[in-house]
Design goal:
The complex is a heterodimer of chains A (110) and B (115). Chain A has 110 residues and is mostly beta strands. Chain A has strands at residues 4-6, 9-13, 18-23, 30-36, 43-49, 60-65, 70-75, 84-91, 99-100, 104-109. The radius of gyration of chain A is 13 Å and the shape is globular. Chain B has 115 residues and is mainly beta. In chain B, strands 2, 4, 5, 6, 9, 10 and 11 form a seven-stranded mixed sheet that branches. Classes of the chains: A mainly beta (110), B mainly beta (115).
Amino acid sequence: QQPVQSPQAVILREGEDAVINCSSSKALYSVHWYRQKHGEAPVFLMILLKGGEQKGHEKISASFNEKKQQSSLYLTASQLSYSGTYFCGTDRSGTYKYIFGTGTRLKVLA
Amino acid sequence: GAGVSQSPRYKVTKRGQDVALRCDPISGHVSLYWYRQALGQGPEFLTYFNYEAQQDKSGLPNDRFSAERPEGSISTLTIQRTEQRDSAMYRCASSSDRGGNSPLHFGNGTRLTVT
């Protein structure tokens, strides 16, 4: 039942782009994206609701394909500060029970 | 505004002892969640509350785990007769409303070690 994220890990150079995917086997009502740095709590990035798309940050955007039960997070012109582990959190049918994905470790090199 | 506060930050206990983990959410937040997180893994859902009502406890591993939020604010996660497999980071999160368009604000967690 846990959403599957891909890739599991990615290494980028500063300025490069990345896409992180989150796939669910169940229908989704909303998708949250969070970034967690080592030793810290997960920090909210953005929310995507069924039937809509919301951009949370200037260079970070996301899409939500309800039919495919997938969401993708797009990181453009990556910065060193983007390094961390990214998690999607999914809510099925408005139950507000957020289940988190398997995680994607991203490292940005100078 | 203070964020979500959890105490203690670290707890070492002997197998068989009971432990109580406390979460103080952001003031006025309606929903409160408990998660368990293993190193390198995503948060694992345990239970959540809207106000004082426990809405879903399907993630609690067994009946040694229980949670309460009696006045709709502070919450306590209790683990009875702790076992070594209970060792993990326990995180609390709160949300301003019950809707799917409200982010979860996570606390810094309680690192539980059962010896």
